[in-house]
Amino acid sequence: MAHVSDLIAEDIDAYLEAHQHKSLLRFLTCGSVDDGKSTLIGRLLYDSKMIFEDQLAALEADSKKVGTQGGEIDFALLVDGLAAEREQGITIDVAYRFFSTDKRKFIVADTPGHEQYTRNMVTGASTADAAVILIDARKGVLTQSRRHSYLVSLLGIRHVVLAINKMDLVDWSQEVFDTILADYRAFAAQIGITEFTAIPMSALRGDNITAVSEAAPWYKGPALLPHLEDLPVEDQLRARPFRMPVQWVNRPNLDFRGFSGFISSGTVKPGDKVKSIPSGRESRVARIVTLDGDLDIAVAGQSVTLTLEDEIDASRGDVLAASSDPPQVADQFESTIVWMDDEPMLPGRPYVLKLGTRLVSASVAEPKYKVNVNTLEHLAAKRLELNEIGVCNLSLDAPIAFDPYVENHDLGGFILIDRISNRTVGAGMLHFALRRSQNVHWQALDVDKAARARAKGQTARVVWLTGLSGSGKSTIANLVEKRLMAAGRHTYLLDGDNVRHGLNRDLGFTDADRVENIRRVAEVAKLMVDAGLIVLVSFISPFRAERRMARDLMGADEFVEVYVDTPLAEAERRDVKGLYKKARTGELKNFTGIDSPYEAPEHPEIHIDTTAMSAEDAAELIAARLMEGLD
Hints:
By secondary structure, the protein is an alpha/beta fold. 29% of the residues lie in helices and 28% in strands.
């Protein structure tokens, strides 16, 4: 819905032309519970005439039924749309609203104040150019005020407004305002917010929202909306080096090949020299193509298609950048991560990292520390739980083009995605490339995996046996190896218990240690496959994500997953080592199947039902299946 303007009636074409070329500001409201965030947005929508008559009638009716203002209009109800939000009087989800004035268009995110929904606040802040941090004048700077201010600083939001709300409830006391301002300024300096604008207001009454109010004659600053209208945004992005992540290679016919994407920073003109990152190939821009025709110049914030003078190799996920100032390329980083999932972050577990238009596999190292956002203290941590923030090293399976987040949000900000469920589990900011990522390179070798396998007269494989403790994995793996050796094959058996006597003797049985256990074994198995061997791996390996990671390390058709399927009751009945008995009595913690989960394979290459097949028959079946494809 567009701002109501006299031009609509007088000259609709002129109005549409002016509206199309207005700048856009994205901002969020944040702060503690009941500081008035939803009310403020409702007031902005109301005062900018962004409410239809039927919406206003519904608002008036809802205000009488579920409002908190004694029958008067409750502006918060314009934004708090969930039933749970109206029942509890709090914001849970992020609500986005559009409105406009004669000078600018706005998208505002109303973010939740409760600590439980911090991840939702981060979502709303991730695309914001400005933040309005609300504080209840009666309560002053609270824990959640500090938490959200820290996140605003962390996410690099450039423009901050400190909205000291509900001043009408403290009789517009300048003393109260000055005390809160001094308290906040001291905290802001600690987290790097050096500039902000403080505005006393009453969102409910409309004071200092769209116009300066006479209620506070001592205040000489701007009202909120005029201040937001004048904030500089796009000029800062245009002044930076040109960056355009490629979203699509546009090839409608043999005569046209263009690279389509959203310009995240800088400007570009025909004739400019650009470089494709990470390949490093250079060319010049031939045309800037849009649906409305070619452009003489394109700037940050526009989506365009660039054609180049040369046929260079670039695809989705690559970045076209100014040749004179390209982004960096690396595969290991230090980063800050905000964990957003109910399941904790496990060091070493593979996740999918999305940065710009690029998707790569990533693993996160054990946090260097996590941050207590209330005290800013750095705390030791083994993993990150929901809503926790930590500084961690990242390792990727391929180099990516990036800028530090403080320089470019689009090429420095990323999300982490669970490989199995496709949930977004974390968001982060890249600080810098680790030095070792620049110093360590692949050494070219003349003898490769195929040559080593040919010398042994076989095709290298990993045969990964997974199942509960007591399922018979080790017994079956041992029998399979004997059969393969008898057939003249070159093999090696990696057994879970044996490996823990050496390579993995430092690991326990927590979920994080189990992830690292499998990561190390998968890397060893990869090296053995590279040596041309048939590698039998017998590990419980309880998590699908790590088995998927091991599969992805290998080449096509090199990974054979064998599910040794034994019901828990049967595995417990066997209990050769007495482990289930100890787990049941509490002597053995984190035991798979008892107090630690086992995620059964969904599509194994070979499924062995040990209740219907002996170990010898299972080994014969596996060996026969393998022999079919080993020659």
